[in-house]
Each structure stands twice: as structure tokens, then as C-alpha cells.
Design brief:
Elements: H1 28-89, H2 91-100, E1 111-113, E2 118-120, H3 139-220
Antiparallel strand pairs: 1-2
Length: about 220
């Protein structure tokens, strides 16, 4: 086993120094501007997309609400028509329409047996008063009855108002007459009092005169 001898540098040989040079600085600001611009454009496009999406959703919501309102109105119309159909099919409506045609309730019905054509029962002429409790009136008749009732109520109210006015006038006349009588009685009492005072004054004067005459007569005697 051998060892290699490492060459030694002589102390007189100078050390070799590496040359250094200045490196220019990198302009990072110029490189960051396109990135910021691109990011801003992406954000603007995203905000515009969100705005358009929100506008579209609002328009769809308004359209849905309008359609819902129209559906509700149509539902109300269908309900009203169903009510009219039900009323038209009711027995009371049929009775009213029969009354318009001049038909009246018949408590004595007659049946016709088919196909023989046999009449079961005794046909009777109806006058319309056989069943007084059953009377179907048309809307026109009901309107006339309501107007007549309103007219009668208005007439009764006018009569009551006239009676109340007459009663107030009578009370006012009675009060005025009583006041006049009271004033007349008061004046009469005042006149009587004045007359009594005058009589008392005259009596006092006569008494004084009598005393003076008596005194004069006594002095003469």
C-alpha cells in the first residue's frame, strides 16, 4: 500500500482570484403588469357574467309570478263557472225556470204508464194556490219585493221623522205657552203687589190724617 504525495504550492506562487462582474437588476414591474391586467379582465368578465345571470333569474322569476297570477285568476274563473253550473242544476233554479214558464206545484201528480199509455191518477186543474208554502220567485220578483220593502221602510222612517218633528214642535209650543202664562201670572202678581202697596200707602196716609185731625180737635176742646 502506497501513498501519493500531494503536491504542495510554493509559498512564492500567488493565489488565483476569480473575476466578478455586475449583473443588471431584473425589471419585475414590467413582467407583473400583464398578469394584473389579465386578472382584472377575468374578474370583470366574471362580474359581468354574474350580473347577466342575476338579471336573467330575476326576469324568469317575474315571468313565473305573472304566470302564477294568471293561473290563480283562471282558477277563480273556473270556480265561478262551476258554481254557476251547480246553481243552474239545482232544484230551486229548475223550479224558478218552471215558474217563468207558467208552471205551478202539483200536489196531485198523474202518472203515465208506458207502453200501454194508461193514465194512473185523476188529472186535476191547478190554480197555483194548492201549496201556499211553496212559492218560487224569480230574481226579478225578488228585486221588486226588495224595492217594495225598501220603499215601505223609507216611508215608515219618513212618517216617524214627521211625527217626531210634530211632537218637538208641540212640545216647543206648549213650553212657549207655559212660559207666556208664567210671565203673565208674574206680571199680574207684580201688579197686585203694586196695588196692595198703593192701598197700604193710602191707608197709612189716611191713618196719619185721622190722627192729625183728632189731635187738632183735642187741642180745640
Amino acid at each position: 500500500m502506497t501513498a501519493l504525495q500531494t503536491p504542495r504550492r510554493s509559498p512564492q506562487q500567488p493565489k488565483r482570484r476569480e473575476s466578478l462582474r455586475e449583473v443588471p437588476p431584473v425589471n419585475r414591474r414590467i413582467a407583473g403588469v400583464p398578469f394584473v391586467l389579465g386578472l382584472g379582465v377575468l374578474l370583470a368578465i366574471g362580474m359581468l357574467g354574474l350580473l347577466l345571470l342575476n338579471t336573467a333569474l330575476q326576469e324568469q322569476a317575474f315571468a313565473v309570478r305573472d304566470q302564477q297570477k294568471q293561473a290563480d285568476l283562471l282558477g277563480y274563473r273556473v270556480s265561478s263557472l262551476e258554481s254557476e253550473v251547480t246553481e243552474a242544476r239545482s232544484s230551486s233554479r229548475l223550479a224558478i225556470e218552471a215558474t217563468k214558464l207558467g208552471m205551478v206545484p202539483n200536489p196531485y201528480p198523474v202518472y203515465l204508464s208506458l207502453p200501454a199509455g194508461t193514465v194512473i191518477g185523476d188529472p186535476t186543474t191547478m190554480t197555483g194556490n194548492e201549496v201556499p208554502g211553496i212559492r218560487y220567485r224569480t230574481p226579478e220578483q225578488l228585486e221588486k219585493i226588495a224595492k217594495a220593502r225598501e220603499k215601505a221602510a223609507a216611508k215608515a222612517a219618513a212618517e216617524a221623522k214627521a211625527k217626531a218633528k210634530a211632537a218637538r214642535e208641540a212640545r216647543a209650543e206648549a213650553a212657549a205657552e207655559a212660559k207666556a202664562k208664567a210671565e203673565a201670572a208674574k206680571k199680574k202678581a207684580a201688579a197686585a203687589k203694586k196695588k196692595a202697596e198703593e192701598s197700604r200707602t193710602k191707608a197709612d196716609a189716611a191713618k196719619k190724617q185721622a190722627e192729625q185731625d183728632k189731635k187738632k180737635n183735642g187741642e180745640r176742646g
